[in-house]
TrEMBL record:
It comes from the Bacteria. Keywords: Membrane, Transmembrane, Transmembrane helix. It comes from Streptomyces virginiae (Streptomyces cinnamonensis). Residues 703-727, 767-791 are annotated as: Disordered. The chain crosses the membrane at residues 120-140, 182-199, 280-300, 321-342, 354-378, 390-412, 441-462, 505-529, 555-572. This is Integral membrane protein.
Length: 791
């Protein structure tokens, strides 16, 4: 109930939510003097200092809303440690694949296909688990195979004056035996696993463990017709993240244990001098490792997210026992490896080719299975706007696998190049065998992939140039009475053409994913059939083929090294430079909107803090004052605003209007995440919200119409004129800028539409009955569109 009497007219509030670029409270409110109303140093609501006591003086704001700003940019671009999140990029992409599934059939009589949706979720979680194993396996390749096995067992690395001299096999020291060197090297991937667990646990307590206003069920199996983002427990993923974190941590530790146990047990079985007890212990530990792997797979596959109500329970057995048991088993394996085995020498390379090949093959088969399930779901509920006709999720999953392979293989290639001096790893005459052959084949396919990308970019550029010429001829006609200016028309047409390239992004991603899948299959076949690196496999063949293979191998290795160097340099710069850190934060604003449903080591979901913040603020303010509220969201802020409105109870929703501008709700989120932002959910949002208006421009590469079909005129207004004036005039003496995605509030349409929304809310408040139908166009005449607009 309101704690103050209703005013006439009711007090109005405009809650501004910024987009991906972030903004300070002073920039959002247009006043350098601001005060924090509620929140903390991470995310808070601000007002102008003069408006701090607006509720006590409603007479000051007759006809005007009280402006407030919700600033959330520090949720993604806070301290310098956030630069470490760059290492989690493949995990983030894999998590996006979970949410990019096609929408299932809706309606009271529709079959939601829960088994297919559940299968899709299981496949994505298995794929995410393989990325964790791949990362830890790459760390094992560097620390165990290249350093502890190959380098430490060679006089090249352990000669006089070397820092690795204490590992020399002929030195007779404590660490001269291969098993003990492997145990020592295992500390590196074990520490990496611990770091991932620490980062996930730390962010888990700050994000997923924040209770929402209300409460959780599995969207994979839900059969109700309510939009998923309106479920009480959607933004509370505490249970699933804790469960997956335990499983992935155990998988990392078990990967390290397998990397140490496999060569140790193999030596004990081959050696006649080994004690029988060691061989028995080897069999026991490998049996326990297999049982641990089955348990991890069962934990990952058994349960998905629950969202029908906030689920405060934790799976104590999995969360507590699984990582601890894996760590105890790893310690036992290390102790077993440290047992003295005189006469054991390290030659060749560890069996990494088979391990990496199985991982790569499994990921490819998983992506193909994911595509089959996604296509099945899409055919049951076709959506022409969905990216790649329902295959957006599998395409994103393929990109995540490719990123994981390049990053992990690139590190191994660079370390091998550094250890063997000027030689090429795997080639004849190299002092060290080098990393697994498959990694060299992966590096060799990188130049062809980049060539394909360059050809695709050139093709899109040619198409854009042709479209620009066609648009330029019609631009001047949109501004009646203006003298045509060829240069001005070309600039405007160029901005529109560049913005339209966003609509071609799904096919670009499809081409990259398809080429990556084909080239990856070729690399796997080449590595398994020849057992040699590309340069050696082509030796003795046609001269052109031999030269091309050697050039592709060398160029790919250097390109991967350059990419890793740039990656590290960017991370270091972001650690020291707040501006660069803000740029990285923009990437996470788009990629980490979604909860961690598939990979617990992905960067945390900031919306699990931001959406409850906005929901609490809207419900609390309207309940205390009885006033009206317009939540005004730009770009990514519009997605947060829509998600928060979905969470409001119906009585509160009738007091709230939604104003979005430059919004990617349909253009990006609706295409890539149709199950959550497709035409069905957005139409339901239009039906549930008392009034909603969306502004967009043809020059905006991100924003676009929010609703398709006949409902669009009730919500969408656009394309707005951009620039506002074609040439110079007494009203615009200087050339008007092309705004694109920025400065929507400077457009006259913004103030007009906000006033229309407030008037509609006021009419409903005076009548003290719910509004009859969403949309400004009913019961209120919207202002005419300015010249050069349509819709």
């Amino acid at each position: 109930m309101p704690d103050r009497p209703h005013t006439d007219p009711p007090l109005a509030l405009e809650l501004l939510v910024h987009g991906v670029a972030g903004a300070s409270p002073a920039e959002l409110l247009g006043d350098p003097r601001t005060v924090r109303v509620t929140g903390d140093s991470t995310a808070a609501v601000f007002r102008r200092t003069d408006d701090a006591d607006a509720e006590a003086h409603p007479e000051r704001y007759a006809g005007l809303p009280v402006p407030e700003a919700y600033c959330w940019s520090r949720l993604t671009s806070g301290n310098g440690a956030r630069a470490l999140w760059l290492l989690l990029l493949p995990f983030m992409v894999a998590n996006l694949a979970h949410w990019a599934r096609p929408a299932g059939p809706t309606g009271p009589d529709a079959d939601p296909a829960p088994r297919a949706v559940r299968t899709y979720g299981v496949l994505v979680r298995v794929l995410a688990l393989s990325l964790t194993v791949l990362l830890i396996a790459a760390a094992c390749e560097v620390a165990l195979d290249l350093a502890a096995w190959q380098c430490a067992g060679s006089a090249t690395c352990t000669g006089p004056g070397s820092r690795l001299g204490f590992l020399a096999p002929d030195g007779g020291g404590r660490w001269s035996q291969p098993g003990r060197r492997l145990a020592l090297g295992a500390l590196v991937p074990t520490a990496l696993t611990g770091l991932l667990w620490f980062l996930s646990n730390r962010t888990w307590s700050a994000y997923e463990s924040q209770p929402p206003p209300a409460g959780a069920a599995d969207p994979d199996t839900a059969s109700d017709t309510a939009p998923a983002l309106g479920r009480p427990g959607f933004w509370y993923g505490r249970r699933i993240v804790a469960r997956l974190r335990a499983a992935h941590t155990a998988a990392g530790l078990l990967t390290v244990a397998v990397a140490v146990s496999a060569p140790t047990a193999a030596h004990d079985r081959r050696s006649t001098a080994a004690a029988p007890a060691l061989e028995v212990l080897g069999w026991i530990t490998q049996a326990l490792l297999a049982a641990g792997a089955v348990t991890v797979a069962w934990v990952v596959c058994r349960r998905g997210r629950s969202e029908d109500r906030p689920d405060h329970r934790l799976d104590r057995a999995a969360v507590s026992l699984l990582p601890g048991a894996a760590l105890a088993l790893l310690v036992a394996v290390l102790l077993h490896a440290c047992w003295s085995r005189p006469g054991w020498t390290s030659t060749g390379r560890l069996p990494g080719d088979f391990a990496f090949g199985v991982l790569m093959l499994g990921q490819g088969l998983c992506v193909l299975a994911l595509a089959v399930v996604a296509r099945y779901l899409y055919r049951r509920a076709p959506d022409p706007a969905a990216a790649l006709r329902g295959l957006g999720g599998p395409a994103v999953a393929m990109l995540g696998c490719a990123l994981g392979g390049v990053m992990s293989g690139g590190v191994a290639q660079r370390v091998a190049d550094w250890l063997d001096g000027g030689a090429t790893p795997g080639m004849a005459g190299a002092p060290l065998p080098g990393p697994p052959v498959l990694l060299s084949w992966q590096a060799a396919v990188l130049p062809p992939l980049l060539l394909v990308l360059a050809l695709l970019a050139a093709w899109f550029a040619v198409r854009a140039a042709r479209a620009r010429r066609g648009l330029a001829a019609a631009v001047a006609a949109e501004y009646p009475g203006e003298t045509p200016d060829t240069a001005r028309s070309r600039r405007i047409a160029g901005a529109r053409t560049a913005a339209a390239l966003t609509d071609s992004a799904p096919w670009f991603v499809a081409a990259v994913s398809g080429v990556t899948l084909v080239l990856g299959a070729g690399a796997l076949a080449g590595a398994w059939l020849t057992g040699r690196v590309p340069g050696e496999a082509a030796r003795g063949g046609p001269p052109l083929l031999e030269t091309a293979a050697r050039a592709a191998q060398d160029a790919g290795s250097w390109l991967i090294g350059l990419g890793i160097a740039l990656f590290v340099a960017w991370g270091r710069r972001a650690y020291r430079d707040p501006a660069a850190r803000r740029t990285i934060g923009i990437l996470w604003d788009v990629g980490t909107f979604w909860p961690r449903a598939a990979h617990p080591f992905a960067p945390p979901c900031y919306a699990e803090r931001a959406v409850p913040d906005l929901t609490w603020r809207m419900a609390g303010w309207t309940g205390r004052t009885g006033g009206r509220l317009v939540i005004s969201g730009h770009s990514q802020g519009s997605v947060l605003a829509a998600a928060a409105v979905w969470q409001l109870p119906p009585p509160v929703r009738r007091r709230v209007a939604l104003l979005t501008y430059g919004s990617p709700l349909a253009r990006l989120y609706g295409r890539w995440f149709p199950a959550y932002f497709g035409p069905g959910p957005l139409t339901a949002l239009h039906r549930d919200v008392d009034c909603w208006r969306n502004l967009w421009r043809a020059t905006d590469p991100i924003g676009g119409p929010a609703l398709p079909g006949p409902d669009s005129p009730e919500v969408d207004r656009g394309p707005l004129a951009d620039p506002l004036a074609y040439g110079r005039s007494t009203r615009h003496p200087l050339p008007a800028p092309i705004l694109g995605h920025a400065d929507y509030q400077a457009d006259p349409a913004f103030a007009a539409e906000r006033a229309a929304l407030l008037a509609r809310l006021e009419t409903a408040a005076r009548a003290e009955v719910p509004a009859q139908r969403p949309g400004v166009s009913k019961g209120l005449t919207a202002p005419a569109d300015p010249p050069g607009t349509a819709g």
